[in-house]
Amino acid sequence: MDIPYRLLSWDDKLLLPHDRWNMRLYRDEGSISGDIVILPPNIPPSSGISVPRAQRKRAYLKIEAKTGPVTTKMHNLYDETPYKLEVYAYGDIKLYIPPSFRGLLRLTAPSPTAQQPQVILCDELKGVSTPTGDSWWSRERGWYVGSTSDVLNKIEEGDEVVAYTKTGKINIYYVEDLSLETD
């Protein structure tokens, strides 16, 4: 969604375009749980009048729970809109991403204990992910989901998930893509 500059409040005018959020959920106390559906900004692809995914602007989404866990299911209708999702939580993060997700996962959790990993990807996700490295000082672990040829050829910016938890675990799963029934 593009908001005309003149309609923005004075503090939003100080932000650069890539710092503005299409959606922001914030909670001081307690948890956040919900389903997020990203709709295409144009007419459905069945009409044949659609902008290719690689030429679309990214949707920016942010979820922050100061003192609780976050559970979120992401749905990308028609797989047309790339997005960046940032999730910050004091407790556990359970994130369900669509199988159409292709892009970067940047996950930061406390250092793992003896037998307990702090970042867990479902088995299906592990099979299509390439580790991009771990940072021992920031505790960030990275994976690229999908074919790396799109990134190397700079075809599209892709999706991105940045998740940070101060005290909990991060679990990433797949959720089914939605489809809109049209008559």
Written account of the structure:
- This is DUF7330 domain-containing protein.
- The protein has 183 residues and is mainly β.
- It has one domain.
- It is 7% helix and 39% strand.
- The protein has three helices and twelve strands.
- The chain has helices spanning 10-13, 123-127, 149-152; strands at residues 23-27, 32-38, 59-65, 70-76, 83-89, 93-97, 103-108, 119-121, 129-134, 140-145, 159-165, 170-174.
- It has a seven-stranded mixed sheet. Strands 2-4-6-12-8 form a five-stranded parallel sheet.
- The chain is globular.
Quick summary:
Helices cover 7% and strands 39% of the residues. It is mainly β.
Number of strands: 12
Rg computed from alpha carbons, rounded to a whole number of angstroms: 17 Å
Give the helices and strands as they follow along the chain. Answer: HEEEEEEEEHEEHEE
* Arithmetic mean of pLDDT: 78
Uncertain runs are: none
Domain DUF7330: 3-176
Protein name: DUF7330 domain-containing protein
Pfam families: DUF7330
Please outline the helices and strands.
Elements: H1 10-13, E1 23-27, E2 32-38, E3 59-65, E4 70-76, E5 83-89, E6 93-97, E7 103-108, E8 119-121, H2 123-127, E9 129-134, E10 140-145, H3 149-152, E11 159-165, E12 170-174
Parallel strand pairs: 1-3, 2-4, 3-5, 4-6, 5-11, 6-12, 7-11, 8-12
Antiparallel strand pairs: 7-10, 9-10
Keywords:
183 residues, mainly beta, seven-stranded mixed sheet, five-stranded parallel sheet, 3 helices, 7% helix, globular
